[in-house]
């Protein structure tokens, strides 16, 4: 059997390619893990170790041959699942964001983490509702540069000693978890390389402990207020019982009788109000009035029942609906922020624009995989940026019969959106209302007059300028309607991530340099 050694440390032999070429449906991962290693597997890995003695399995005993074989199977699946380009010869990152069903499964494969390929530089397991202690097995990948476990429910203590082995780690995100405050993370030398945003609302900062104390005090005070308790119970009944339906009476009260003071937008067939529910939550309420057919009402309720189930940090949260008399309303969680259109007028830096583009396409990829019947209308007016810099897609639509044309339209719209994130303000204004002319103008000037395309206020370095050029190419690929086969959103996400990761690492390194410089100035004074 022909054998080669890849830079990633994976086995690139014929059976490995066979695993990658077979669809997951016809050959499930678990079934493959139950197969024994092929007869010549020992000689294969022996030859690999002769070529590269640094491979993690080289010092293992022959008794662990089965686990080594299993690790190559998991690596093959995980490489493809992460949309890592050029699998299996290049396995540079593990991307299991917003995969709550898959992330725990892959974390359970201890044999894979024991022999973690050296090529992996980034691990992202964010937004998966992971609970329990820190998954310390991933720290066997001591070579990684980036680790993101944010927006989970991890608890217990942090394995500090294991973290110190990650000498290359430059980007860490443990925010929004429930770790125990065993120590002051800010006082540990290893963690000083990261800023507070890496640990915000993780339970690891002193401010988190103070916040929890204040919250406990507030809760104890609320226990004595019977009216608020009744209101909270009412809210729990609505959410836990799965009842997302609001009455006209509730919405009337929430908006002070649909007062002008609560009205924030009015169009021909729609009114938008800011309301406050009886539990104190501020919401946005879109209302349509007038008689409609019973079929339309059934379709409206059916769509709402789907939308209330969608949960993603970059997609507006639909809390419920109202369908009474001649009024239909959708109740959504309200976020403070501005539209992308207004945000771009402030000339945000390149790394912030890239972050917005990356998180928007990841949200689209989430919908494509988990909710294929839901389409999102991505425009600079339909996406907002929160006060914390997080993008939020505001417009969703349920399709009874999703097809390739609707998916292609979503990709086209994202391409236009990406190009608008990069272009000069005056160019966007000049071609406002004509997406095709805007795209054609970008395509015409991208090579010889690229600087006239780019927003000059971004003040790009040479490296960032190249990243912008690559992002423009991706935007033009998305908007190229002449191609016979349109790419999927997941493929676009993978392409953009290749551009995004260097900009993120540069941002972290820049912050560290600034932090060190500032500390030196303090020492001299």
From TrEMBL:
The keyword Signal applies. Residues 1-26 form the signal peptide. GO terms for cellular component: membrane. It is found in: Membrane. Keywords: Membrane, Receptor, Signal, Transmembrane, Transmembrane helix. This is Protein kinase domain-containing protein. It holds the Pfam family PK_Tyr_Ser-Thr. It comes from Dendrobium nobile (Orchid). The keyword Acetylation does not apply. InterPro entries: Kinase-like_dom_sf, LRR_dom_sf, Plant_RL_S/T_kinase, Prot_kinase_dom, Ser-Thr/Tyr_kinase_cat_dom. Its main location: membrane. It is a single-pass membrane protein. Gene3D superfamilies: Phosphorylase Kinase, domain 1, Ribonuclease Inhibitor, Transferase(Phosphotransferase) domain 1. It comes from the Eukaryota. Residues 258-525 form the Protein kinase domain.
